[in-house]
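Shift notes (night). Ran Amino acid transporter transmembrane domain-containing protein while the centrifuge was going.
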Amino acid sequence: MRDISLNIEAENQESSKFDDDGQVKRTGTMFTATAHIITAVIGSGVLSLAWAIAQLGWIAGPIALLAFAVITWFTSILLADCYRSTDGTRNYTYIEVVRSHLGGLKFQLCGIAQHSNLVGSCIGYSITASISMVAMGRSYCFHKYGHEAGCHRSNNPYIMSFGAMQLVLSQIPNFHKLTMLSIVAAVMSFAYSSIGIGLSIGKIAEGGQIESGLTGVPIGKDMSSTDKMWNTYNALGNIAFAYAFSNVLVEIQDTVKSGASENRTMKNATLAGISISTIFYMLCGVLGYAAFGNDAPGNFLTGFGFYEPFWLVGLANLFIVIHLVGAYQVYCQPTFAFVEELGRKKWPESKFVTREYSIYGRFDLNLFRLVWRSSFVILTTVVAMLFPFFNDFMGLLGAASFWPLTVYFPIEMYIARAKIPRFSFTWIWMQILSGICLVISLLAAAGAIQGLIKSLGTFKPFHSVS
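Came back to this:
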């Protein structure tokens, strides 16, 4: 009897190490989930908000920011409810949630939309990190040689150095190992946003003639009505990109520890993450526009005017780079996991795909993971060198991800899960919301594509200079 009780006790201790799906017990909390969300939300998108508000003006700019925040929060809550299937089983990724609740063609379309956006975000982060690296050198150059000095540098070596860092970090096995990286990245996002806010306040305090308006940049000799229209659409895409994190929300929720409050924890983390992000967005966008007016640069930390104190400008851009190092990993991990799972299913007997090699007893190395992830990083690095257009690229990514991933799929899954009748009041207003967001996304995409075409007309590949 004593042996039986010991065996039962050992089995209970062993089972306590695993969750209901047999995986190692999740330990995520509201704090760690909020850190993941802030890392995903506050990224390179914050840098273009002053420019976006300059295109929209004092009225439409802040309203657009708040509207995107509320819509993202609402649909994120719907998505959090869909993490588990109706039978209680877990869905580990965004795609699995769609397959569980919608299936068929919608599942395939979601896979294309999600992974295209994740790859695009990694490319965008490579571009932004290189611009910030260059800005660090330029701020010191301006300080040493004066503001009249060109201090121009090629972006390509910095894009490659960022890619080299990601080659190493991309061997982190999965999302659950990214907690510390996300916390550091979240702290960095607060730091550089705060510095940007402080620099904006300092510039406002200096006084001077700053032109701004209720409708943003006015139509005139330097801005035709057509250009104003395209810039307005592009600005909406930039704001949409600033809130693009729904495509990793499920992966973040999969790190939260099990229990009756699992769903509530994720909803609270979503509310906290989006609220904190929106406060910083509003401060950066509004104060940035107040500081620069209609001449607000595309990237308000690397544009003209922020030359002194040079060490603070350099520090802010260093924080951006550190943050984007973590954000890149948050966004690429779902794509890594998707391809590796396909590989294991297709070649279950291949040692190249499945075998893990222990390095000094501390690190696990898998050859397929090494080759595939390294190829991914190299590809995103090369594309970033080919198309280093910050605002247009951010606008296109925002437009491409906002409606399908942030709005359409969460609404459709919630309707299917809750069995909301067609043409009921709830169904109708949800469809109206989805339709409005679709129109906004299409307009934003048109503005971004027009900007990219315009930029490509004068650009030479691999010759980007900041």
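The beta strands are 357-359, 363-365. Residues 104-145 form the longest helix (42 residues).
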